[in-house]
Structure formats: C-alpha cells, structure tokens
Amino acid sequence: MRRRALLQSAAAMTLATPTIAQPKSLLRFVPHADLASLDPVWTTADITRNYSLAVFDTLFGIDDKFNIHPQMLAGFSMSADGLVWDLTLRDGLLFHDGTKVLARDCVASINRFASRDAIGTALAARIAEVSAPSDRMIRIRLKSRFSLLPNALAAYASVIMPERLAQTDAMKAIPEAIGSGPFRFKADERIPGAKVVFEKFAGYVPRADGVPSFTAGPKIVHFDRMEWTVMPDAGTAMSALLNNEIDWWENPSIDLVPVLRKDKRLTVEVHDVTGGVACLRFNHLLPPFDNPAIRRVVQKAINQRDVMTAVAGAEPSLIKVPVGLFVPGTQYASDAGLAANTNGWGDIAALKKELAAAGYKGEKIVVLGATTIPRIWAAAQVGADVLTKLGFNVDFQALEWGTVVQRRASKAPIDKGGWNVFFTYLGGTGNISPATMSAARGDGEKAWFGWPTSAKMEALRDAWFDAPDLAAQQTLTAEMQLEMWNFVPYVPMGMHDQPIAHFSYLKDIRDGYPQFYGVRRV
Question: What is the CATH number of the domain that holds 288?
C-alpha cells in the first residue's frame, strides 16, 4: 500500500509536467519483458511473438474475428479431394538482406515450424510432401484432409525466413533475425536488458487489398524507427509515460491502472480479447512432479480467485474466474470439472496428508518466479506460498523473466541448474481453441517446456481436428478438460484481461497482440 501511495503521489506531480515534443518518425514502446530469443519457433515467449510480428511475415493472416486470409500469398487453390494445396506468393516480397522471398524459403520454413509448433505438428502428421514447383508456387500434398491448413500457416510462429536460416534445427535458436516483415531488427543497436531497436523496412510492399485487422490485411508502417525500452520497474515505466518519455506501455501494472485512467492525455484500454491465463507449470521429467497424484494435490490447493485478486484486485472488472482450458464465454469453454478443481481447498492439513500419501518425500523443489513482469510475479508469490504451506521443500528463486525463459528450456537435474516449477501466462489463440494450445501436447521431446506427455490428451486433440461439426468438437473439448484435471499438465490460476496504456495521439492500434504496423501519430 505504501508503494501504491508513493506512485500515486508521483503521478499527481507529473500531471503538471509539460509534454515533451517528439519526432513523429519515432515510436517509443515499453514491452512487458526484455527480448531473450530471436526465434519464434524455438520459444513460446510472448515478447518473441511480438517482435516476430514486426520482423517476420506469414503466408496467411488472422483478422480480429479469427478468420483466415492470405497474407504473403496472392492466392491459393485446393484439389477436389482436399489433399493438394497450391499456394502462390505475391509479387514484391523481399527479405531484409535484399534477396527475394522464394518458394523454397517457404518450404524450409514450413518444415521447421511443423517440426515443433503445436498446430504445426498436427499439420506435419498429415503432410506427405512440401515442394516448390516454381519460385512462386508452394505445393503441399497431404496424406489426409486437413481443413485447418491455413490456420496453421497463419500461426505467428509459422514465420517465413531465408532457407539457410530455416534449415536450423528447430531445437536450436536461429543465430540472426532476417525476415520479410514491415520492420527490420537492428542487431547493431541491441542493448540486452535495456533496448531493442527496429527500423521501417523500405523494401516491404504491403498488400494492396483487404482490411487491416489483427495480423491480416495491409501492414503499413507510419514510423521510420521504433525503440523498445525495457523498464522492469512499474513505477519507472509509469513515470516515463506520464512524462511523455514513451508513447505506449504494453502492460501497466493493474494496481496503477486507476491512476493512469485519470490522466486525460492517455488512453487505457483492452485490445487482446483472449486475455491471459496465469498458470503454474510443472517439469514432468523430474520428481516429484513426474507423479500425477502429486500434481493433482497442487491443483486442488490453488484458489483462482485468490491468485487473481493478488494480480488484478485493483480492477476487479478485468478478472475472469474460474477458468479451465478455454476463455470463459468462448465456444469451447466448458464447466466440466470446473468447480471441483478451481476453488482451492481450505483444509491444508488434509492436503498435506494427501501429498504424503501420493509419495512426496520432502525433496527440494526449485521454483522460478519472474520479478520483472508484475502479473507473473504476483501469481508466483501466491503459488510459492501455497506450495510452502502444503509442505513442499521450496527453493524459491526470484529471477528476471529473460533468465526464466532460458532456464525453463533446461532438462538438467536440480543440482545442475534444473527446475521443478515456473509461472507464466497463456494467451492468444491457444486460449480459445485446441489447435494451438500447449496443454494438449503429448509428444514428449517436442512438447512445451515442462514436457508433459499424455497419450489420451493428444488422441482427443487429434480427434478434434477430424470432428465433423461444432457439437462433436465441443464434446471432445469437454473430455479434454476432464483429462486436464486428471493428468494436470499445468495448473490454471485464473485469468484477467490486460489493458495497454498509451498517449491518445496514437491511433489505429490493432486489436490482439501488440503490433506496430498501422499505428499512426496524429
């Protein structure tokens, strides 16, 4: 409370500060974290997704109603039996190194994406061959029909990169960022932990048709340069915004939102309707969380309302609980097992006995909590406290988010830098459909960090891909949610909508994830 009062006092003094004149060619942005990886295939980190949308492009795009449209494509056709898809690249596509985007680049990029990404592997299981009959033609021959092929190639990780980079093993990160998107990544100006710089790519040719929406339609850049300044401290970021040292803050701390709303120069609004689901992620490879009975005890102990109150209690209207696999109110949301698994148990003594009966022997667990993202840090503190009260021997390590992103990729034992639990948020299309969600991954080595392996979950997801209609899909997603409570790939900790804050002179910010094409200054 003292921190909030101090920040509010600082804000009140700042309101009288003159606005600093800034060149219209510069967009100043504060991201939610530092950019730890340049490879959207190698990591699922949201910060890499946001950078990827600026630097790379995809064959298809998604509008704000989640409809799919050609993006890098002039058009496409499908054979009568649905097994052969011909995709034609549009004219004028260039990579940032000045070379033309060719079909063989796309073939290599599709193969790399499909070897690791959630919906990509579903596509890969149905692919017989991907080829390049000409420089502009990509041909995909399927072993079985897959109507969601455009959806897969619209995924943000389905980026097109030069063939030489796309030949990088998907289990290793690409060494440089060469895309064909509207912005170039300025590696020479990168300051780790402090600054990420982009410049308008003069060689980018936007689509001449379509309506700008989410990742679809013309991507027109109105700024010559964009600078991301990393500000882990929420008070520092708020002061920078109120002093007009930045234009746009991606994720203002929820407890500061009421203060920001009072400044008439600012707009505070929600653009990402998929929200963010807080989750406690287990390492399924190491004890004790290789034991599903122990994971179920943790699931029973988490009260989503308590977690979300810690995260977003200052703006209760942003909170959505309880939540299972999918965002409440969307077509696959279900109440299957919801009440019994999301309210938390008050009887810690009973849960301690259940934990002992499940086989926990008092071994140390390493719990990673990211201090630099306020909503993750709040969820991590509540989660670590619950684990401690349950009787776990908790080694709670407070780290910068970029360090967590690096550490979570490790499969090493605990005494060699491994981990047992980390906290994160699930967002985007994975919250509204099984197609891209990480909860359903059951293929071990290629699974999401934590490496959950559930043959039943994967089988249900495969059946969903082939279901004949919405009713059949909803039956399967309800079964998937029941299997989640039994298998517990992760623990959902509730969800909330995350507003952005920006000066009102910024117009045409697209709905969805932070995107920087289309945005203009007036």
Answer: 3.10.105.10
**In this structure, what CATH number is given to the domain that contains residue 113?**
3.90.76.10
Q: Which of 42-46, 270-274, 441-445, 457-461 has the lowest mean pLDDT?
A: 441-445
Phi, psi of 111 (to 5 degrees): -65, -40
Domain that holds residue 185: 46-200
Confidence of residue 3 (pLDDT cuts 50, 70, 90): very low
Same domain, 265 and 292: no
Q: Angle at which helices 348-358 and 292-301 pack, to 10 degrees?
A: 170
Q: What is the pTM of this model?
A: 0.81
Residues 6+ apart with CB under 8 A from 102: 89, 132, 135, 136, 163
**Residue 100, Cβ neighbours under 10 Å: how many?**
14
Amino acid code (one letter) for 151: N
CA–CA dist 483, 478 (Å, integer): 9
Q: Do 236 and 351 have their domain in common?
A: no
Question: Strand 364-370 to strand 421-427: parallel, antiparallel, or no bridges (unpaired)?
Answer: parallel
Q: For the chain, what is the domain count?
A: 3
Strands 225-229 and 195-200: antiparallel
Asked whether 332 and 433 are in contact (CB, 8 A), the reply is: yes
User: Hey, what are 371's tokens?
Assistant: 């201090």
Q: What's the confidence (pLDDT) of residue 225?
A: 97
Q: How far apart are CA 395 and CA 397, in angstroms?
A: 6
Q: Are residues 476 and 427 part of one domain? A: yes
Phi/psi at 512 (5° precision): 105, -150
Residue 236 covered by a domain: yes
- Let me know if residue 222 belongs to a domain: no
Do 491 and 464 belong together in one domain? yes
Q: How far apart are CA 72 and CA 75, in angstroms?
A: 9
Same domain? 137 vs 182: yes
List pLDDT tens digits, range 109-168.
999 999 988 788 889 999 999 999 999 999 999 999 998 999 999 999 999 999 999 999
By CB atoms closer than 10 A (0-12, 13-18, 19+), residue 79 is exposed
Average pLDDT score, the chain: 91
Distance between CA atoms of 187 and 92, rounded to whole angstroms?
Answer: 25
**Residue at 41 is within a domain:** no
User: Which helix or strand (DSSP H or E) is residue 68 part of?
Assistant: strand 68-70
